[in-house]
Amino acid sequence: MSVHELLEEGIKLFTMKRWDRALEEFLKVATDDFEQKDNTELAYYLGLCYAKLERFDDALIYLEQVVTASEDPLRMYQCRLALAYIYVITGRSKLAEFELGRLTKGGYESIQIYTTLAFAAWCQKQYQRAIDFYEKALEMDRNNATALNGLGYILADSDIDIKRAIKLCRQAVDIKPQSAAYMDSLGWAYFKSGDIPEARSWLRRAFELSPNRPEIKNHMKIIISHDI
C-alpha cells in the first residue's frame, strides 16, 4: 500500500471504532514525502486513537501538534477539547481550564466546553463554579445527560439540594438507561437522601455493569458497611 492508502485504511478503521487496528495502520505510514497538511491529518488521527485507547501521554504529543499546526478551526477545536478532557482525567485541571479558556476567548461555546469546565472545577473542589458551568450547559440543552448527571451528583454529594439531585440524576438515567455512571450517581443521591433501599438497588445495578470503576466500588463499600 502507498502511504496515502495506509492513511485511508486507518481512517476507515477509525470510523468503525476499531481504535487498535486503526492505530496499527497509522503507525505504518511513512511521512517523509507528506505535505504539512497530511502530517497534521496523521497527527490528528494518531492523537485520537491514543486517547480512545487511554494512552494519554502519547495522545498529548500528537494533539498538541494539531493545535499548533492545523489551519482547520474544527480540528483545532476538537483537539483542544480532547486535550482538556485528558488533562482533567489525569489530574491536571488547571491545564484543562487553560485549553478551554483558549476556546472561549476564540468565540467558541458548546455544551462540551461547559461540561468539561464543570468537571475541572469539581476536581478542584470548586463546587459552585462547577454548578454554574453545568447550569450553562443545561441552558443550551436541558436534556443533556452529561450535564444532568454531573449537576445532580454535585448537588447530592455536597448536600446542597438533594431533592433536585435525585430528579436530575433520574432524568440522566432515563436518557441513558445503560450507563453505570449515571446509575451510580442516582444511587448516591438516594443514599444522601436517606433512602437506603433505593440507593442499594441502583448502586448494585451500577456495580454489576461496571465493577472495576473506583467511585462505584467506593459507594458500594459504603452501602455494605451501612448494612452491617
How does the SSE layout of this entry go?
Blueprint: H1 3-15, H2 19-28, H3 36-52, H4 56-69, H5 73-89, H6 93-105, H7 111-123, H8 127-140, H9 145-157, H10 162-175, H11 180-193, H12 196-209, H13 214-227
Q: State the low-pLDDT regions, or none.
A: none
What sort of overall outline do the alpha carbons produce when their principal axes are compared?
Answer: elongated
Could you give the order of the helices and strands? Answer: HHHHHHHHHHHHH
Largest sheet: none
Radius of gyration (CA) equals: 20 Å
* Name of the top-level CATH class of the domain at 1-99: Mainly Alpha
- What is the CATH fold-level name of the domain at 1-99? Serine Threonine Protein Phosphatase 5, Tetratricopeptide repeat
CATH superfamily of the domain at 1-99: Tetratricopeptide repeat domain
What is the overall pLDDT average?
90
| CATH-derived architecture of the domain at 1-99 | Alpha Horseshoe
Structural class: mainly alpha
| Extended strand count | 0
Helix content: over 70%
Number of helices: 13
Strand content: under 5%
Distance between the termini: 64 Å
